[in-house]
Protein 1
Amino acid sequence: MKRIALVTGANKGLGFETARQLGAKGIKVLMASRDKSKGETAVEKLKSEGLDVELVQLEVTSNSEIKTLKGYIESQYGKLDILVNNAGIMHQDEPLGTNTSENISSSTLQNTFDVNFFSVVNLTQELLPLLKKSDAGRVVNLSSILGSNTVQSDTESPYYSVKPFAYDASKAALNSFTVHLAAALEGTNVNVNSAHPGWVKTDLGTDGAPMEVVDGAKTSVSLSLEEETDFNGKFIHMGEEVAW
């Protein structure tokens, strides 16, 4: 039976390219999108390239949609081999070149954490029984170097002045989830890692980013593959560890 992958936020950007690259490896990809119309367009594009992909509806902050999706995957496929927690947001009131910790609103903090952290925990916990049925389960959490407290506290770092607090804190929390979940699953067939894709030309990264989307997806895809067994409970970019 084909390996089954679920990629959240797969209708555009890194999620779309991750789905494309996994599909090119012969993996069946469930492309999760909260916008059905945009999801359908993305799926048809990859189907036209001969890839085995399928649209699944998912608003990641909806517990009911998470449970419905889990039931669908279980009934149709009986297992899940790869979970790429790609969906994420950065609010427009957090300009990259500023430090928002003095004035960030509680509503922006809550909304950012709802998408970037709480939804990932909820979805992953719900799907763990299916991942444990895989011969080589993989959980990839899309993080960012901006979530590295080592980098954020280093005055010599080129990222030191880039401090959108809600976004950075949500990714730091996500990294903590990676460390804890990997430890909890030690000795099982499921590996859990955080991926730093790099500064990529996406809606979030802007056109000023130096990396193309095709390269930004490579870290997630590598961590998703069965042969990538060297990393567990790590923060990775292009095959190299990133400091927490």
Protein 2
Amino acid sequence: MASGMSAREEILAKVRAAVAGAPTVEIPRGYRTRRQVDDLVGLFAERVGDYRAIVRVVPSAELGATIDACVHGRRMVVPDGFGRDGGWDDLDTADGVMTHCAVAIAETGTIVLDHGPGQGTRAQTLVPDYHLCVVLADQIVPGVPEAVERLDPSRPLTWISGPSATSDIELNRVEGVHGPRTLEVLIST
């Protein structure tokens, strides 16, 4: 190793020397940045359901009563900014968490949390066995490019596509290993 250089600096110096004088190559970036979807709510609900999540489309006037029915008898973590009182503080004994989201993606059925108001911390959204997420219809975008436009890359982002699941070496599906076993999504229209 050269005197005073870290291993990282030495490797980067070798890479720079190897590519010195190479011609600049234009890389076309013809990514699709807009997609037209006629029924964002319907497509999102379908795709979230494909991931084995429980999905309900609820008129906004019925949202409060539906949330009450979903969490009845459960000890729920309610993050600051969710708009409800009575949250459970102990993650070790909580049955679930209820959150809002930053954005939802119709094409992939993905919910994105940026852990802003009402979205909780990563621990709050990954430790409990049940996650109830309220998605407002105007938070649903057609695809990933539109979602990325709405997100702040400096915030911690958690992308959720269905309940936590993994497969062992014999392809047996196991749910709830790395996060909530049950994801319930209420889409408020």
Protein 3
Amino acid sequence: MSKNDQFNASASMLGYLYQIRYGLLLSLKKLAEVADPELINMSIELLDDVSFDKEGVPEDLLQTKFHSKPGNLTNSSPDIWKTIRVWVEAINTGKIELGKVVLTLVTTEALPKKSIAIQLGMGNERDIESALKTMLEISEGENKTNAKGYQAFKTLSKVQKKAFLNSIYMIGASDDLLRIREKMKPIARQSVPNNAADAFINHIEGQWFAWCIDLLSQTPTGVINLGNLQDLIDLIRPQYLSTNLPAEFTDALPDIIDVDGDLRVFIQQLRLFKASKNMLELAIKNYYRAFEQRNKWSKDGLLNPGELGSFDQKLEDNWKEKQSFLELFEIIGTEQEKLVYSAKLYQSCQVDGIEPIRPEFIEGYLSKGSYHILADNLKIGWHPEYKQLVAANEDVA
């Protein structure tokens, strides 16, 4: 692939990402506007770049034009005339009905003063008559790139042309990909605390992109029902409230599980009481899930200052309490008795020592894996002589 081809591919990819992200922003806004989201569908590349219909009847069609460099949407811009052609073809084929649909061109380019784009804009300078006059003149000219757009426009009757332009709105200097993302945050803050807004949007957007990939893979292109988007928000919102946290690693697995070759301290601790291979494998999984989850929460800014430290202290106190009770009733003299004691202490923490980091977070993998994180740092142990034995094993290793 040549360097130019690479740039073209990157521009196309950014254009698709722009469509998808802009479609999500509009969909989130519509949830607050419509009486019943289950009646509204959003589609990408079906009737237009982004379109909305109500029970199958098109209501809003949007052309999105993303440009990585600054520019102006001039009267002869291909973005305008290619869009005109797309919309006129939809009218002529009966896919949309004039007067019942809003047609919007959204571009990252600026709208020059006294231009068609300004005259078809949403501001005080909107002037349908002037725009019509200019477009009639331009469409009589010669321009290879815009020829199909000119011809499409001329197929409309005089009445249709005016109704057509009355349905069109052009929005310039539109937000880039990052700004669109920022505009979702105030919407998110209506559902979750401020510090959780970014992570909440990330979760929604991840599912949204998955849906869009799925609908674009269908022939013809499928739709996303806004009722599903509302259901997703309702489903995940409780995870981002102050009494809970999202459980994102419940079934996650490390890339490699090498039970026999794993020399980490928490594994050595389990070997001290001859833990089975299955127990070692489960410990590796829980360690991974807890470690990754804790890092993800920290990265997403979802944790309060000192919250992980307090949680770990709670687990350590739990371990001490269970250790103290076992020492009251268990005889720990022979090596076999030490092994039995170790296994009981480990089981007690893993089964009965589950602590919620927040009241509504009930996933056990966090506590189970965090015990192993503490054991890996020698903050806790299972064998009565775990510090000496682990140190000896490390020396041998």
Protein 4
Amino acid sequence: MKFASLASLSLSLSLFVIAYPSVAADKDQCGKVTLADMNWNSATLIAHIDQFVLTHAFHCKAELVPGDTMPTGASMIEKGEPDIAPEFWSNSMKEAIDKGISERRLLVAGKALSEGGEEGFWVPEYLVRQYPELKSIEGVLKHTKLFEHPEYSDKSAFYGCPAGWNCQISAGNLFKALKLGQVGFDLVDPGSGAALSGSIARAYERQEPWFGYYWAPTAVLGKYRMVKVDFGVKPDIKEFLSCTTQADCLSPQVTMYPPSPVNTLVTASFAQQSPEAMGYLGRRSFTNQQMNQLLAWMEDSQADGEMAMEYFLREHQDVWQAWLTDAQVEQVVQALKRL
């Protein structure tokens, strides 16, 4: 997924989850269901998992359709299709989603990522083992010389978000609020998401210091153990929305990044059609650590969503079996044997 900005996706949307009673439904009640297969790895993985489980545990006729955040959200509101967006970064189109929910066209079935999307300034874990004080921004400020600049010997490097991405604004404003420039740091534009992740990989291979912005869930944080630097304050949502994420913010204040809600969005017609499947979608959720590890496996294995789904269902039964009844688990297990 091209990272539009976890920051800009975060926060002000107060979605609510409607709980449906567990009712005994005919096994064919689910009927035909369409799921948006979004074009980034975590979303396509969840979509394939949902398709397999809905097909074999709930007897749905589940079909994947291509999707992306903005067009999928608009189509669900205006046309009532697809039925399910398994991983939806809701605040990317907050006003439209709010309206769709208020008009009862859309519902939030549950959280795709239980902790929400995560952003922060990070340092490698091996560096923190050597300098424990680097867990806090005060410690980083005391060790600026550790973080050598790739071009200027008299500066220290802070790797920011690539130019053109919305997260460049929040990272830049927090760089200013933390007064990193005043202690010798230079805000380095990596040029691309690949170059940013490559800088972390290169530092790890050489066991060198690294300090910069990154987000989760991602394959990078699944492969490389990083520590999020504590700014010494809690997230200030008002400050974050009104200033940190705004390009014209003149006096940014220090705040930790608030989590970004990442939900499973469904149409009202699907919720009425299959309450039991809604119950599954409400229970199906991943922690960032779980998803980071799965994304790392996908990248290393060059796996698509279907391959990753099969890997997850075979190798992580302790996770997904908690989402289903014993009878449903057995149906999924038997279906896996037929693959």
